Protein backbone atom coordinates (compact mmCIF):
# COMPACT_ATOMS: atom_id res chain seq x y z
CA UNK A 1 0.00 0.00 0.00
CA UNK A 2 1.46 3.33 -1.07
CA UNK A 3 1.50 6.19 1.40
CA UNK A 4 -1.07 8.80 0.46
CA UNK A 5 -1.20 12.51 1.18
CA UNK A 6 -3.71 13.70 3.73
CA UNK A 7 -5.43 16.97 4.45
CA UNK A 8 -2.62 17.81 6.85
CA UNK A 9 -0.24 18.11 3.87
CA UNK A 10 -2.15 21.06 2.39
CA UNK A 11 -2.85 24.69 3.15
CA UNK A 12 -6.56 25.05 2.54
CA UNK A 13 -7.25 28.50 3.94
CA UNK A 14 -9.83 30.24 1.76
CA UNK A 15 -9.81 27.37 -0.76
CA UNK A 16 -12.91 25.69 -2.14
CA UNK A 17 -12.48 22.18 -0.78
CA UNK A 18 -14.70 19.51 -2.34
CA UNK A 19 -15.08 16.65 0.14
CA UNK A 20 -16.61 13.29 -0.77
CA UNK A 21 -18.12 12.08 2.48
CA UNK A 22 -20.29 9.04 3.16
CA UNK A 23 -23.61 10.33 4.51
CA UNK A 24 -25.48 7.21 3.39
CA UNK A 25 -27.39 6.93 6.67
CA UNK A 26 -30.38 4.68 7.30
CA UNK A 27 -33.75 6.53 7.33
CA UNK A 28 -37.08 5.37 8.77
CA UNK A 29 -40.45 5.55 6.96
CA UNK A 30 -40.92 9.18 7.98
CA UNK A 31 -37.47 10.12 6.69
CA UNK A 32 -35.85 10.43 10.13
CA UNK A 33 -32.21 9.43 10.53
CA UNK A 34 -32.06 6.13 12.44
CA UNK A 35 -28.31 5.99 12.95
CA UNK A 36 -25.97 8.96 12.45
CA UNK A 37 -22.67 7.12 13.01
CA UNK A 38 -21.50 7.99 9.51
CA UNK A 39 -22.18 11.70 9.95
CA UNK A 40 -20.28 11.68 13.24
CA UNK A 41 -17.42 9.77 11.61
CA UNK A 42 -16.82 12.60 9.13
CA UNK A 43 -16.72 15.35 11.77
CA UNK A 44 -12.92 15.33 12.28
CA UNK A 45 -12.41 16.25 8.61
CA UNK A 46 -15.18 18.85 8.58
CA UNK A 47 -14.09 20.47 11.82
CA UNK A 48 -10.48 20.63 10.65
CA UNK A 49 -11.62 22.42 7.48
CA UNK A 50 -13.74 24.84 9.52
CA UNK A 51 -10.77 25.67 11.75
CA UNK A 52 -8.61 26.13 8.66
CA UNK A 53 -11.21 28.56 7.25
CA UNK A 54 -11.75 26.67 4.03
CA UNK A 55 -14.87 27.03 1.87
CA UNK A 56 -16.38 23.59 2.38
CA UNK A 57 -18.39 21.74 -0.26
CA UNK A 58 -19.63 18.32 0.86
CA UNK A 59 -21.01 15.67 -1.46
CA UNK A 60 -22.51 12.24 -0.77
CA UNK A 61 -24.98 9.70 -2.04
CA UNK A 62 -27.96 8.49 -0.03
CA UNK A 63 -29.47 5.08 -0.69
CA UNK A 64 -30.35 4.04 -4.25
CA UNK A 65 -32.82 6.52 -5.76
CA UNK A 66 -34.00 5.99 -9.32
CA UNK A 67 -33.71 9.57 -10.47
CA UNK A 68 -34.72 12.55 -8.35
CA UNK A 69 -36.67 11.43 -5.29
CA UNK A 70 -37.59 13.95 -2.56
CA UNK A 71 -37.78 11.13 0.00
CA UNK A 72 -34.04 10.62 -0.45
CA UNK A 73 -33.01 14.24 -0.18
CA UNK A 74 -30.00 14.98 2.02
CA UNK A 75 -32.06 17.65 3.84
CA UNK A 76 -32.26 15.69 7.13
CA UNK A 77 -28.49 15.16 6.97
CA UNK A 78 -27.86 18.89 6.48
CA UNK A 79 -30.00 19.56 9.54
CA UNK A 80 -28.26 16.94 11.72
CA UNK A 81 -24.80 18.07 10.59
CA UNK A 82 -25.58 21.69 11.31
CA UNK A 83 -26.50 20.70 14.86
CA UNK A 84 -23.16 18.87 15.23
CA UNK A 85 -21.00 21.71 13.93
CA UNK A 86 -23.04 24.48 15.53
CA UNK A 87 -23.55 26.48 12.37
CA UNK A 88 -25.71 26.55 9.27
CA UNK A 89 -25.15 23.87 6.64
CA UNK A 90 -26.69 25.01 3.37
CA UNK A 91 -28.22 22.41 1.10
CA UNK A 92 -27.80 22.95 -2.63
CA UNK A 93 -30.74 22.24 -4.96
CA UNK A 94 -28.72 19.69 -6.86
CA UNK A 95 -25.10 18.50 -7.09
CA UNK A 96 -24.24 19.96 -10.50
CA UNK A 97 -25.53 22.83 -12.64
CA UNK A 98 -25.80 26.60 -12.62
CA UNK A 99 -27.59 27.08 -9.31
CA UNK A 100 -24.98 24.91 -7.59
CA UNK A 101 -22.13 26.84 -9.20
CA UNK A 102 -23.71 30.07 -7.99
CA UNK A 103 -24.07 28.74 -4.45
CA UNK A 104 -20.43 27.67 -4.52
CA UNK A 105 -19.30 31.08 -5.78
CA UNK A 106 -21.15 32.76 -2.90
CA UNK A 107 -19.58 30.49 -0.28
CA UNK A 108 -17.45 32.38 2.24
CA UNK A 109 -14.55 31.13 4.35
CA UNK A 110 -15.73 28.79 7.09
CA UNK A 111 -19.09 28.11 5.41
CA UNK A 112 -20.47 24.71 4.49
CA UNK A 113 -22.51 23.77 1.45
CA UNK A 114 -23.88 20.24 1.13
CA UNK A 115 -24.67 19.16 -2.43
CA UNK A 116 -27.89 17.24 -3.00
CA UNK A 117 -27.83 13.43 -3.35
CA UNK A 118 -25.28 12.47 -6.04
CA UNK A 119 -27.33 9.46 -7.07
CA UNK A 120 -30.19 11.65 -8.28
CA UNK A 121 -28.02 11.46 -11.41
CA UNK A 122 -27.41 7.99 -12.75
CA UNK A 123 -24.11 9.27 -14.17
CA UNK A 124 -22.73 8.93 -10.63
CA UNK A 125 -22.90 5.13 -10.47
CA UNK A 126 -22.23 4.82 -14.21
CA UNK A 127 -18.89 6.54 -13.65
CA UNK A 128 -19.62 9.22 -16.26
CA UNK A 129 -16.61 11.42 -17.07
CA UNK A 130 -18.56 14.47 -18.04
CA UNK A 131 -20.52 14.38 -14.79
CA UNK A 132 -17.28 13.96 -12.85
CA UNK A 133 -15.76 17.00 -14.59
CA UNK A 134 -18.80 19.10 -13.68
CA UNK A 135 -18.37 18.09 -10.04
CA UNK A 136 -14.61 18.60 -10.14
CA UNK A 137 -15.09 22.18 -11.38
CA UNK A 138 -16.73 23.10 -8.08
CA UNK A 139 -13.58 22.76 -5.99
CA UNK A 140 -9.89 23.66 -5.91
CA UNK A 141 -8.93 20.73 -3.68
CA UNK A 142 -10.43 17.22 -3.45
CA UNK A 143 -10.69 15.32 -0.18
CA UNK A 144 -11.70 11.66 -0.29
CA UNK A 145 -13.32 10.61 2.98
CA UNK A 146 -16.06 8.18 1.90
CA UNK A 147 -14.46 4.91 2.93
CA UNK A 148 -17.77 3.05 2.48
CA UNK A 149 -17.73 3.59 -1.30
CA UNK A 150 -13.99 3.35 -1.87
CA UNK A 151 -14.31 -0.01 -3.61
CA UNK A 152 -16.60 1.41 -6.30
CA UNK A 153 -15.54 3.21 -9.46
CA UNK A 154 -18.29 5.79 -9.18
CA UNK A 155 -17.82 9.28 -10.60
CA UNK A 156 -17.52 11.24 -7.35
CA UNK A 157 -15.11 8.88 -5.64
CA UNK A 158 -13.01 7.54 -8.49
CA UNK A 159 -13.08 10.09 -11.33
CA UNK A 160 -13.30 13.47 -9.59
CA UNK A 161 -9.92 12.93 -7.86
CA UNK A 162 -8.40 12.28 -11.28
CA UNK A 163 -9.64 15.64 -12.59
CA UNK A 164 -9.25 17.75 -9.46
CA UNK A 165 -5.77 18.03 -7.92
CA UNK A 166 -4.53 18.07 -5.26
CA UNK A 167 -6.57 15.04 -4.18
CA UNK A 168 -5.90 13.81 -0.66
CA UNK A 169 -7.31 11.58 2.08
CA UNK A 170 -9.61 12.89 4.76
CA UNK A 171 -9.21 11.82 8.36
CA UNK A 172 -11.83 9.06 8.33
CA UNK A 173 -10.24 7.39 5.32
CA UNK A 174 -6.84 7.78 6.93
CA UNK A 175 -8.11 6.21 10.15
CA UNK A 176 -9.71 3.26 8.34
CA UNK A 177 -6.52 2.57 6.40
CA UNK A 178 -4.26 3.02 9.43
CA UNK A 179 -6.24 0.60 11.58
CA UNK A 180 -6.32 -1.88 8.77
CA UNK A 181 -2.54 -1.66 8.38
CA UNK A 182 -2.03 -2.06 12.11
CA UNK A 183 -4.09 -5.25 12.04
CA UNK A 184 -2.99 -6.78 8.77
CA UNK A 185 0.25 -5.25 7.51
CA UNK A 186 2.43 -4.64 10.58
CA UNK A 187 0.50 -6.36 13.36
CA UNK A 188 1.54 -7.18 16.89
CA UNK A 189 1.49 -10.97 17.11
CA UNK A 190 -0.21 -13.30 17.72
CA UNK A 191 -2.90 -12.19 15.28
CA UNK A 192 -6.24 -14.00 15.46
CA UNK A 193 -8.81 -13.88 12.64
CA UNK A 194 -12.42 -14.62 13.55
CA UNK A 195 -14.55 -15.29 10.51
CA UNK A 196 -18.23 -16.14 10.20
CA UNK A 197 -21.09 -15.73 7.78
CA UNK A 198 -23.13 -17.81 5.44
CA UNK A 199 -20.97 -18.83 2.55
CA UNK A 200 -17.46 -20.00 1.87
CA UNK A 201 -17.92 -18.84 -1.74
CA UNK A 202 -18.25 -15.16 -0.79
CA UNK A 203 -15.48 -15.33 1.81
CA UNK A 204 -12.98 -17.46 -0.09
CA UNK A 205 -10.73 -14.53 -0.94
CA UNK A 206 -10.75 -13.44 2.70
CA UNK A 207 -9.90 -16.89 4.03
CA UNK A 208 -6.98 -17.19 1.60
CA UNK A 209 -5.62 -13.77 2.43
CA UNK A 210 -6.04 -14.22 6.19
CA UNK A 211 -4.13 -17.48 6.04
CA UNK A 212 -1.12 -15.49 4.88
CA UNK A 213 -1.39 -12.97 7.67
CA UNK A 214 -2.82 -14.44 10.85
CA UNK A 215 -1.44 -16.93 13.37
CA UNK A 216 -4.81 -18.44 14.22
CA UNK A 217 -8.11 -18.46 12.39
CA UNK A 218 -11.49 -19.40 13.86
CA UNK A 219 -14.16 -20.15 11.26
CA UNK A 220 -17.75 -20.10 12.53
CA UNK A 221 -21.13 -19.42 10.92
CA UNK A 222 -22.54 -21.67 8.24
CA UNK A 223 -19.14 -21.70 6.54
CA UNK A 224 -17.95 -24.16 9.16
CA UNK A 225 -20.18 -26.91 7.73
CA UNK A 226 -18.50 -26.94 4.34
CA UNK A 227 -15.20 -27.42 6.20
CA UNK A 228 -16.62 -30.16 8.44
CA UNK A 229 -18.03 -31.93 5.38
CA UNK A 230 -14.61 -31.75 3.72
CA UNK A 231 -13.24 -33.59 6.76
CA UNK A 232 -15.78 -36.34 6.21
CA UNK A 233 -18.32 -35.51 8.93
CA UNK A 234 -22.02 -35.54 8.30
CA UNK A 235 -23.63 -32.23 9.15
CA UNK A 236 -27.35 -33.06 8.80
CA UNK A 237 -29.19 -30.46 6.75
CA UNK A 238 -26.82 -27.61 7.68
CA UNK A 239 -25.89 -25.22 4.91
CA UNK A 240 -23.10 -26.82 2.84
CA UNK A 241 -21.71 -25.61 -0.46
CA UNK A 242 -21.01 -28.99 -2.05
CA UNK A 243 -19.00 -27.56 -4.93
CA UNK A 244 -16.63 -25.93 -2.46
CA UNK A 245 -15.91 -29.04 -0.39
CA UNK A 246 -12.63 -29.72 -2.27
CA UNK A 247 -11.63 -26.07 -1.88
CA UNK A 248 -12.31 -26.28 1.86
CA UNK A 249 -10.06 -29.36 2.01
CA UNK A 250 -7.29 -27.42 0.20
CA UNK A 251 -7.67 -24.54 2.64
CA UNK A 252 -7.23 -26.88 5.60
CA UNK A 253 -4.07 -28.26 3.96
CA UNK A 254 -2.74 -24.79 3.24
CA UNK A 255 -3.31 -23.77 6.85
CA UNK A 256 -1.37 -26.81 8.02
CA UNK A 257 1.53 -26.18 5.66
CA UNK A 258 1.73 -22.53 6.79
CA UNK A 259 1.49 -23.49 10.45
CA UNK A 260 -1.62 -21.36 10.83
CA UNK A 261 -3.93 -22.93 13.38
CA UNK A 262 -7.40 -23.15 11.85
CA UNK A 263 -10.17 -23.87 14.36
CA UNK A 264 -13.76 -24.90 13.74
CA UNK A 265 -16.61 -24.84 16.27
CA UNK A 266 -16.84 -27.96 18.41
CA UNK A 267 -20.54 -27.78 19.27
CA UNK A 268 -23.64 -26.32 17.69
CA UNK A 269 -27.11 -25.15 18.56
CA UNK A 270 -29.18 -27.09 16.06
CA UNK A 271 -32.76 -26.71 14.87
CA UNK A 272 -35.03 -28.33 12.31
CA UNK A 273 -35.42 -25.15 10.28
CA UNK A 274 -34.39 -21.50 10.27
CA UNK A 275 -37.21 -20.25 12.44
CA UNK A 276 -37.82 -18.75 15.86
CA UNK A 277 -40.21 -21.60 16.74
CA UNK A 278 -38.15 -24.61 15.72
CA UNK A 279 -37.17 -27.04 18.50
CA UNK A 280 -33.47 -26.72 19.39
CA UNK A 281 -30.72 -28.87 20.90
CA UNK A 282 -27.02 -28.45 21.54
CA UNK A 283 -24.76 -31.19 20.15
CA UNK A 284 -21.06 -31.84 19.54
CA UNK A 285 -19.91 -31.19 15.97
CA UNK A 286 -19.85 -34.85 14.94
CA UNK A 287 -23.39 -35.55 16.14
CA UNK A 288 -25.71 -33.41 14.03
CA UNK A 289 -28.61 -35.77 13.22
CA UNK A 290 -30.29 -36.06 9.83
CA UNK A 291 -33.04 -33.48 9.47
CA UNK A 292 -31.34 -31.00 11.81
CA UNK A 293 -29.14 -28.03 10.96
CA UNK A 294 -26.51 -26.07 12.87
CA UNK A 295 -27.75 -22.52 13.38
CA UNK A 296 -25.38 -21.17 16.03
CA UNK A 297 -22.18 -22.15 17.81
CA UNK A 298 -22.51 -23.61 21.33
CA UNK A 299 -20.95 -22.80 24.71
CA UNK A 300 -18.00 -25.15 24.32
CA UNK A 301 -17.07 -23.46 21.05
CA UNK A 302 -17.27 -20.09 22.79
CA UNK A 303 -14.92 -21.39 25.48
CA UNK A 304 -12.57 -22.57 22.75
CA UNK A 305 -12.72 -19.14 21.13
CA UNK A 306 -11.97 -17.53 24.50
CA UNK A 307 -8.82 -19.63 24.73
CA UNK A 308 -7.82 -18.90 21.15
CA UNK A 309 -7.99 -15.14 21.63
CA UNK A 310 -6.54 -15.37 25.15
CA UNK A 311 -2.98 -14.42 24.17
CA UNK A 312 -3.88 -12.42 21.04
CA UNK A 313 -2.29 -9.03 20.52
CA UNK A 314 -4.45 -8.33 17.48
CA UNK A 315 -7.94 -9.60 16.64
CA UNK A 316 -9.75 -9.02 13.39
CA UNK A 317 -13.41 -10.09 13.12
CA UNK A 318 -15.90 -10.36 10.29
CA UNK A 319 -19.15 -12.30 10.04
CA UNK A 320 -21.78 -13.67 12.43
CA UNK A 321 -21.32 -17.04 14.15
CA UNK A 322 -24.94 -18.07 13.60
CA UNK A 323 -28.32 -16.84 12.43
CA UNK A 324 -28.09 -13.88 14.80
CA UNK A 325 -31.16 -12.23 13.27
CA UNK A 326 -33.25 -14.74 15.27
CA UNK A 327 -33.26 -14.55 19.08
CA UNK A 328 -32.88 -18.31 19.37
CA UNK A 329 -29.56 -18.25 17.52
CA UNK A 330 -27.98 -14.92 18.41
CA UNK A 331 -26.04 -15.95 21.50
CA UNK A 332 -22.88 -17.17 19.74
CA UNK A 333 -22.50 -13.95 17.76
CA UNK A 334 -23.29 -11.65 20.69
CA UNK A 335 -20.94 -13.53 23.03
CA UNK A 336 -18.22 -13.34 20.39
CA UNK A 337 -18.76 -9.58 20.21
CA UNK A 338 -18.55 -9.27 24.01
CA UNK A 339 -15.48 -11.47 24.22
CA UNK A 340 -13.65 -9.47 21.56
CA UNK A 341 -14.71 -6.24 23.25
CA UNK A 342 -13.26 -7.44 26.56
CA UNK A 343 -9.93 -8.46 25.05
CA UNK A 344 -6.91 -6.26 25.68
CA UNK A 345 -5.69 -6.92 22.13
CA UNK A 346 -6.06 -4.37 19.34
CA UNK A 347 -9.56 -5.25 18.13
CA UNK A 348 -10.89 -4.46 14.68
CA UNK A 349 -14.20 -5.52 13.20
CA UNK A 350 -16.14 -4.80 10.04
CA UNK A 351 -18.86 -5.83 7.63
CA UNK A 352 -22.55 -4.92 7.65
CA UNK A 353 -23.82 -7.81 9.81
CA UNK A 354 -20.87 -7.62 12.15
CA UNK A 355 -21.35 -3.91 12.72
CA UNK A 356 -25.05 -4.54 13.36
CA UNK A 357 -24.34 -7.35 15.84
CA UNK A 358 -21.77 -5.21 17.70
CA UNK A 359 -24.34 -2.42 18.10
CA UNK A 360 -27.03 -4.86 19.23
CA UNK A 361 -24.66 -6.49 21.72
CA UNK A 362 -24.01 -3.01 23.13
CA UNK A 363 -20.22 -3.17 22.84
CA UNK A 364 -19.58 -0.71 20.01
CA UNK A 365 -17.44 1.59 22.15
CA UNK A 366 -15.39 -1.25 23.62
CA UNK A 367 -14.00 -2.42 20.28
CA UNK A 368 -10.99 -0.41 19.17
CA UNK A 369 -12.20 0.13 15.66
CA UNK A 370 -15.39 -0.81 13.85
CA UNK A 371 -15.07 -0.07 10.16
CA UNK A 372 -17.68 2.26 8.65
CA UNK A 373 -17.52 0.46 5.31
CA UNK A 374 -18.95 -3.00 4.69
CA UNK A 375 -17.89 -3.82 1.14
CA UNK A 376 -14.73 -1.72 1.23
CA UNK A 377 -13.58 -3.41 4.44
CA UNK A 378 -14.15 -6.84 2.88
CA UNK A 379 -12.08 -5.84 -0.16
CA UNK A 380 -9.19 -4.89 2.13
CA UNK A 381 -9.59 -8.20 3.97
CA UNK A 382 -9.29 -10.00 0.65
CA UNK A 383 -5.99 -8.22 0.11
CA UNK A 384 -7.38 -6.10 -2.75
CA UNK A 385 -6.54 -2.47 -3.23
CA UNK A 386 -9.26 0.19 -3.23
CA UNK A 387 -9.54 2.02 -6.56
CA UNK A 388 -10.60 5.29 -4.94
CA UNK A 389 -7.58 5.24 -2.68
CA UNK A 390 -5.20 4.55 -5.56
CA UNK A 391 -6.23 7.70 -7.44
CA UNK A 392 -5.35 9.98 -4.52
CA UNK A 393 -1.97 11.75 -4.50
CA UNK A 394 1.03 9.75 -3.34
CA UNK A 395 3.18 11.08 -0.58
CA UNK A 396 6.54 11.79 -2.20
P1 LIG B 1 -22.28 -13.15 5.33
O1 LIG B 1 -23.00 -12.06 4.58
O2 LIG B 1 -21.63 -14.15 4.45
O3 LIG B 1 -21.37 -12.60 6.40
O4 LIG B 1 -23.40 -14.00 6.07
C1 LIG B 1 -24.22 -13.46 7.06
C2 LIG B 1 -25.40 -14.37 7.23
O5 LIG B 1 -24.95 -15.65 7.59
C3 LIG B 1 -26.34 -13.92 8.32
O6 LIG B 1 -27.53 -13.51 7.73
C4 LIG B 1 -26.53 -15.17 9.16
O7 LIG B 1 -27.88 -15.42 9.48
C5 LIG B 1 -26.01 -16.27 8.26
N1 LIG B 1 -25.56 -17.44 9.01
C6 LIG B 1 -24.61 -17.49 9.96
N2 LIG B 1 -24.52 -18.74 10.46
C7 LIG B 1 -25.43 -19.50 9.82
C8 LIG B 1 -25.81 -20.88 9.90
N3 LIG B 1 -25.23 -21.68 10.77
N4 LIG B 1 -26.79 -21.31 9.08
C9 LIG B 1 -27.37 -20.45 8.21
N5 LIG B 1 -27.05 -19.16 8.08
C10 LIG B 1 -26.09 -18.67 8.88
TrEMBL record:
Gene3D superfamilies: Phosphoglycerate kinase, N-terminal domain (3.40.50.1260)
Residues reported in the UniProt entry to bind substrate: 22-24, 38, 61-64, 119, 152
InterPro entries listed in its UniProt record: Phosphoglycerate_kinase, Phosphoglycerate_kinase_CS, Phosphoglycerate_kinase_N, Phosphoglycerate_kinase_sf
Pathway annotation: Carbohydrate degradation; glycolysis; pyruvate from D-glyceraldehyde 3-phosphate: step 2/5
Entry keyword annotation includes tRNA processing: no
Entry binding sites for ATP: 203, 294, 325, 351-354
CC per GO annotation: cytosol
This protein's name: Phosphoglycerate kinase
Taxonomic lineage of the native organism: Bacteria, Pseudomonadati, Aquificota, Aquificia, Aquificales
Amino acid sequence: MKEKKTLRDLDVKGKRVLVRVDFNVPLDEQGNIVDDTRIRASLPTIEYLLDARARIILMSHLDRPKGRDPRLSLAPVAKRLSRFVGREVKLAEDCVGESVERAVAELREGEILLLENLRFHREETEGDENFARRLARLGEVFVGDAFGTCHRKHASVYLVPKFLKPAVMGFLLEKEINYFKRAMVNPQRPVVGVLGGAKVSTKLGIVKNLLERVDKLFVGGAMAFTFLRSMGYSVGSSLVEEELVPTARDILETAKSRAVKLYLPVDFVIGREVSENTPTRVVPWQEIPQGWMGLDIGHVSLELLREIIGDAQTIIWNGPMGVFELDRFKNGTFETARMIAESSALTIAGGGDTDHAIHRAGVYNAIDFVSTGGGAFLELLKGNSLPCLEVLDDRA
